[in-house]
Description:
CATH architecture of the largest domain: 3-Layer(aba) Sandwich
Number of strands: 14
Shape: globular
Structural class: alpha/beta
Distance between the termini: 63 Å
Helix content: 40-55%
Amino acid sequence: MKYQKICVLGMGYIGLPTACTFATHGMQVTGVDINQEIVHGLQNGHLHIYEPGLRSLVKSAMDSGNLSISNSPQPAEAFIIAVPTPITDEKNADLEAVKSAAHSIIPHLRTGNLVVLESTSPPRTTVDIVAPILEKSGLKAGTDFMLAYSPERVLPGKILEEIVQNTRVIGGIDERSAAAGKELYSVFVKGDILLTNATTAEMVKLMENTYRDINIAIANEFAHLADRFEVDAWEAIQIANRHPRVNILNPGPGVGGHCISVDPWFLVEAAPDISPLVHTAREVNDDQPHFVVETMKKKLGSLENRKITALGLSYKANIDDLRESPAIEIVKLLLEEHAAVTVYEPYKPDGFHGHVKAANSLKEALQDCEIILLLVAHQEFTTLIPQDAIKLTTARIAVDMCGGWQRKNWEDVGFDFYKLGQP
């Protein structure tokens, strides 16, 4: 069938761009979120997340009359579930939002409808959890309505581009469901659309992010080894990568975000007896913030009462997403060392909730400190000229934990400079 009316549940980093993209391609879309503050904000033109180009896209979708925002699902021909799937303290998948979203669809589910789960989930979530919930409507999945899994595979900062251009994977609980998913997303997807079954599609998403997590873990472990042997990890990695079949990533302060730092745990939870490598990589990356703070103590001595300005809180450069951010974990560990911490996150100045001073500008952040600590390679920070910085601050120590600065530039103007992975 040709879909004209859809309902997208979850107005976060994926759901909102998805809803707006469908709307700007002529479909009638209801965007749903249970957070009334988000609903009210979007209804009045206010965005709760930052993504390049998103404000203009939301405005276009709203101005077209094709997008409406609600706190509950409305009747539609297709429903897309794009709600968060965080992990618990026990490193298990928290699927309560997915279950709640599926339950909320039941009153509106009709014969011939399509339901698509986009939320990253452990293998068999679609067939073992979502399908039984939806079938409480009295309709049978695969017979009366169609059900598919289609993971988001986009990079924050490039979501609006990649949601259209990237290859789309659609896994149906049967071939008819997969084909229906293809018809739905063909409205705007320009990349290839690959059809498979639901569990394979779930596995694909987890495999992609687990692969990346493991590669980051070995880079971070190389930094640990380089520190032990007094080797410059950055130089060694650069030379090793001259080999035609080697591509080692750069070390950093840890792994964050809602994907790479979370998804591998879904595999460990589902099959702990056969995923030791996945488990170990997660432990290496989760422990990296501790390594960062211990490295600072080794190089700088006691951190108690030291005035430290931490630059960046998001989990990667030039975005406002603080979920699972290693930078935030590092700040918490510095506080445990009784350091006096100032934080500056240009994309979300009020993002850290704790006993720190939150600066509203780089100038304010640098004014009264002893140590400048670079945690996120935001462009505003990596383009900071040391000759300018030294005029703004009393600090004479610069610490780079993400590879955004060059040692010589800072030492030339009088800073003591320390960098992760360098002796």
